[in-house]
Design goal:
By secondary structure, this protein is of the alpha+beta class. The chain folds into five domains: 87 residues, DNA Primase, Chain A, CATH 3.90.580; 134 residues, DNA primase DNAg catalytic core, N-terminal domain; 121 residues, Dna Topoisomerase Vi A Subunit, Chain: A, domain 2 (3-Layer(aba) Sandwich); 72 residues; 131 residues, DNAb Helicase, Chain A (Orthogonal Bundle), CATH 1.10.860.10. The protein is 51% helix and 11% strand. The strands form four sheets. The protein has a five-stranded antiparallel beta sheet. α3 packs across α4 and α14 packs across α15. The chain is globular. 37% of the residues are buried. The C terminus is likely disordered.
């Protein structure tokens, strides 16, 4: 049976959407609503709006939206029932005894987490055996203490093709479950362990669950890859997690150190820098930046100084900046990594490096400088052109002015000329971005709608349907008048018809609409569209009269569709609607 509505109402009452969302997003009041930077996509201007009156949120930038349950689903990467449990635990509520949840899926994920925990224990116990003397020796050679090894739960995969698998089977887990956790692989002769003869690093999430593993080959060992990581599983998405975040989130430091890999992170923690984290065998992602932004507003990048490391740093800077995170870049002299530097010069000197780290602008200026021979006239000119491009991306006029002054003094050029060049380049960048935005609006591929694919084909009908749904939600007293004149079968677009049917069902049972009544029936993307329908556009001055007009439009468009007549708007119509929505951004007026 479905979750009782009384339970959902109590759940929402004890988990107010303002309180839950504000623990992830810095919200500012705007009238009766709140706005902030969207946690689901990169932006610098707030387009995320929270509507306390309806208990919903919507982002005008990416289309994310829903109620407090949908928000938790998106922000924590949970399914519906997991999000409900999360909020119930947060509020100290017990779950109803009987629900319509997919019990098999819940049990499957729980089994994988249990299996991972047992695997971590097995690997750690193996590290302390004679067969793993080389693995333990490697960790000690890297300077790790017994307490550090224990704290991070480090282990060893032995030279056995099925040692872990046999251990897990002895505990009642199947080979298929081990394969699902990506700890076993199936070959021609059956199942075998995925990790063989490696130092093992368990990856732990923010709730303390072991969700994955990384394995490192010993120096001199044969293998196809130095590091082997768990692939995505039902409990692990590498692009949405960071190594050691479970520890680093509690650091008193006001920044995270984003390091290259597992050993760098562990060495930094052992040296007292307990805010170190690392990406998990993948390029740094927007999801990881958003994860960081929940806890810190500043990051110190400590990546390799080789070409690959510099490219990774450049990419990470852009992603972190888009997430509103201040970035500094560490330059480590006379050492290949933080661990080597700390061993040579001590933790105090390394702390000095962090305090003197270059900001992102300085990093790109230094990178541009390294490309050119500034002792030659051509090289100086080429560098200054690159520097202008760098500073054109800087939004703060004061910061631009300071760097332009430094460059003018060093290269004996006119500061006013540099400032003029920077402003021209910045204006050009803005024009380019504006043209791209307009092109995306007109481009049919941009107008593709995965939630309601028929929306682009029948825009006039879809617009009328959405207005009718909004009026029905806002004016439930018009329920009888509307439903006596039109049904979901009369709708042109299937998605809007389903939403209309859902709203009617809620109003029939409760006489008032609450978005939580339908959140279990729709995906987060679909919920975003429903909230957009609810909160975008002005309220009708004469709702009853508008309903009659909208119903006429829907019926006429339905007849056109059945006859096979073309239906659509011109590009100018689309841009006008886009501008109207942008003007109405923020909700009802």
């Amino acid at each position: 049976m479905p979750l009782p509505q009384e339970f959902l109402q109590e759940l929402k009452f004890r988990n107010s959407i303002e309180e839950v969302v504000s623990s992830y997003v810095n919200l500012k009041r705007r009238g009766s609503n709140f706005v902030g930077l969207c946690p689901f996509h990169n932006e610098k201007t707030p387009s995320f709006t929270l509507y306390p009156d309806s208990g919903s949120y919507y982002c005008f930038g990416c289309g994310a939206g829903g109620d407090v349950i949908t928000f938790v689903m998106q922000i924590e990467s949970l399914d519906y029932m997991e999000a409900v449990r999360f909020l119930a635990a947060r509020a100290g509520m017990s779950m109803p005894e009987s629900t319509n949840e997919d019990a098999a899926e819940v049990r499957r994920k729980a089994r994988i987490l249990e299996l991972n925990r047992e695997a971590a224990r097995y690997y750690h116990s193996c590290l302390l055996t004679k067969e793993a003397s080389a693995h333990l020796g490697y960790l000690k050679q890297r300077g790790l203490t017994a307490s550090t090894i224990k704290r991070f739960g480090l282990g060893a995969a032995l030279k056995s093709y099925d040692g872990l698998l046999r251990h897990l089977q002895s505990l009642g887990y199947s080979a298929q479950e081990a394969e699902l956790a990506n700890l076993a692989v199936r070959g021609r002769s059956g199942y075998r362990d995925r990790f063989f003869d490696r130092v093992m690093f368990p990856i732990i999430d923010l709730r303390g669950n072991v969700i994955a593993f990384g394995g490192r080959l010993l120096p001199g060992s044969e293998g196809t890859a130095k590091y082997l990581n768990t692939s995505d599983t039902p409990v692990f998405k590498k692009s949405r997690n960071l190594y050691s975040l479970n520890i680093a989130k509690n650091s008193k430091a006001d920044y995270f150190i984003l390091a290259e890999g597992y050993m760098d992170v562990i060495a930094l923690h052992q040296a007292g820098f307990d805010s170190a984290v690392a990406a998990l065998g993948t390029a740094f992602t927007q999801e990881q930046a958003k994860l960081i932004s929940r806890y810190k507003s500043s990051v110190v990048l400590s990546l390799d100084s080789d070409e690959a490391g510099q490219k990774a740093a450049s990419r990470a800077i852009g992603i972190l900046n888009d997430a509103g995170i201040e970035v500094k870049v560490l330059k480590i002299p006379d050492a290949k990594d933080p661990d080597e530097f700390i061993k040579k010069y001590g933790a105090e000197r390394f702390k000095g490096l962090i305090e003197g780290a270059a900001n992102d602008t300085e990093f790109f200026l230094l990178k541009a400088r390294d490309k050119h021979d500034i002792t030659a006239t051509d090289g100086r000119l080429a560098f200054l052109n690159d520097a202008v491009s760098v500073l054109a991306e800087v939004k703060n006029p004061l910061e631009r002015d300071i760097y332009a002054g430094k460059l003018a003094d060093e290269f004996e050029v006119s500061k006013s000329t540099l400032i003029s060049q920077i402003k021209n380049a910045a204006s050009k960048n803005e024009r380019t971005q504006r043209k791209k935005a307009e092109a995306r609006i007109i481009n049919p591929s941009y107008r593709r709608d995965d939630v309601n694919p028929e929306r682009a084909q029948y825009p006039r009908a879809a617009h009328a349907e959405e207005r009718l749904i909004k009026i029905l939600i806002m004016h439930p007293d018009l329920f009888d008048k509307i439903t006596s004149s039109i049904s979901a079968d009369d709708f042109v677009t299937e998605f809007n018809g389903e939403v209309f049917k859902s709203v009617c069902s809620v109003l029939t049972e409760h006489n008032t609409f609450d978005i939580s009544y339908i959140s279990a029936d729709y995906t987060p993307a679909q919920m975003g569209r429903i909230v957009e329908i609810m909160n975008t556009g002005v309220n009708s001055a004469d709702a009853a009269a508008e309903c009659a007009d909208l119903i006429k439009v829907i019926r006429a468009e339905k007849e056109k569709k059945e006859r096979g007549d073309p239906s659509g708007w011109s590009d100018s119509d689309i841009i006008n609607v886009f501008n109207e929505l942008r003007e109405n951004k923020g909700g009802n007026k």
